[in-house]
Amino acid sequence: MPTLRRVASTLLSVTVTAIAASAASQSPPPSGRHGDGHAQHHDWYKDLRQPDTHSRCCNGSVDGQQGDCRPTQSYVGEDGLYRAWDGREWLVVPKSKMIFMTTPDGGTHLCETYGRVFCFILGDPES
Length: 127
Description:
With 127 residues, the chain is α+β, with helices and mostly antiparallel strands. Helices cover 24% and strands 26% of the residues. The strands form 3 sheets. It has a 4-stranded mixed β-sheet with strand order 3-8-9-7. A 3-stranded antiparallel β-sheet has the order 4-5-6, with no helix packed on it. Strands 1-2 form a two-stranded antiparallel ribbon.
């Protein structure tokens, strides 16, 4: 019959292993930087349209500078507006640029250039 010490030791070992495996399986959050993650989703981005202008989200331009779509991090501010990380700063997302749809990876995606948001795709509610 196993001793209490042996059972506790085994239980602790199993718990530590499970926690380590769970942490290793989680990928780091998206960087939000231009180009990061764009290639993996380009075929999906190319068909997205800005909700207010119906121009393309991907490769939209401002003053001749092309925008870029990529996975990003986001949160809802105290004012109820979404913020999206562009790799440098948190951008306020205009409501007119929000798209609510399932994304290929379940996360949020941002299309912007020089701080101007073309599209913000919210993805799954849990993301």
